Amino acid sequence: LTWLWNGCVKPVVSRMRENKLLGLQGDDGDVMSRVWWIGSGVATTLPFHAACAVVATSDDGGCTIESAADYMISSYASTIKSLGYSRSRAASCGVPGRDVKAQRVLVVAMPTTPGQRALKGADCEADAIKDIFEPLSPCQVLRHPTAEQVLACIPGSTMVHFACHGSADLVDPLKSRFMLQKDGDRGPAADSLTFSMISAATVTHDSSWLAFLSACSTAAVRADRLKEESLHLAGAFQVAGFVHIIATLWPADDDACTRLAALFYTYLTCPQGQSGYASPASALRRATLQLQSEYPNRPSIWAPFIHMGA
User: Is residue 273 part of a domain?
Assistant: First the structure.
């Protein structure tokens, strides 16, 4: 992260300062500039938002860290065109997209999955989200659903949250999938919700606002020849029309997923600014900073989570 700060992010911050682009007030009340990172080649996997370096130390062993989050709210996009698409979708969502009381929330939870390790935090994650939203908006929790059940619910949901295993296909990214389950001859059997199934989902212009993909490597493409094509699970939701996507660059710790999700939705639903509520990108930045303060020496815990979209 120090190399990334010195070699890439710090020069960007310096140029922004020269052009008076730092500290611009956003529409959610944050005096913080928005930056969209568009990587190329292997840089598509770099955590620009988490870049940081120690700039001073004290006699008592403490240190001062300078980081990207000190200066900006970071988001990611695969191309300028995809960013434009997300922003046009944001405009079509209008007020329903910014009002948490106008949301219809879907949570998919897989505490156990055939052939995979148990996710002990999935139930806690689902319960925490339900507790946050139930006083405000309808919240449906699907536990151990089939792919068909999830696909049937996505079009009527403004926000979807996946607390489950995810897998990026090494050969065919269109087969990257969320791991669900269905009834088999001898009990529960594996079921898959794939990139191609999600990207083909039918959503309406005022419904598809936020997808939180709390699963492993949902913003990662494993096929080297397709690194720049955004053929990952987060990209599938963008193709389907979701304006904002929270995803992971690498496998995320189960407890960290639960903690960050609770922080994220708490910040997202806390009234602030002229628009009423924080943007998803701003809420993620705050949640990540809180998690970073709890695990300062373990960036693998707090750094994988990213925002994609408008």
Answer: yes
Full-model pTM: 0.89
Split at pLDDT 50, 70, 90, the class of 275 is low
Q: How do strand 139-143 and strand 63-67 relate by DSSP bridges?
A: unpaired
β-pair partners for 276: 272
Domain with 295, as residue range(s), is 81-309
Query: Could you tell me the two tokens for 245?
Result: 């996507």
Residue 21 per-residue DSSP state: -
Q: What's the mean per-residue pLDDT of the chain?
A: 85
- Residues 181-225: pLDDT tens digits? 999 988 899 999 998 898 887 665 567 889 999 877 555 544 454
Residue 303 inside a domain? The answer is: yes
Burial class (CB in 10 A: 0-12, 13-18, 19+), 190: middle
- In order of 33, 118, 277, 300, the CA distances from 140 in angstroms are 35, 22, 22, 31
For residues 78 and 130, is the Cβ–Cβ distance under 8 A? no
Tell me the one-letter amino acid at 182: K
H/E stretch holding 194 reads strand 187-194
**Total tally of structural domains belonging to the chain:** 1
Task: Note whether residue 88 is domain-resident.
Answer: yes
Q: What is the domain-level CATH number for residue 241?
A: 3.40.50.1460
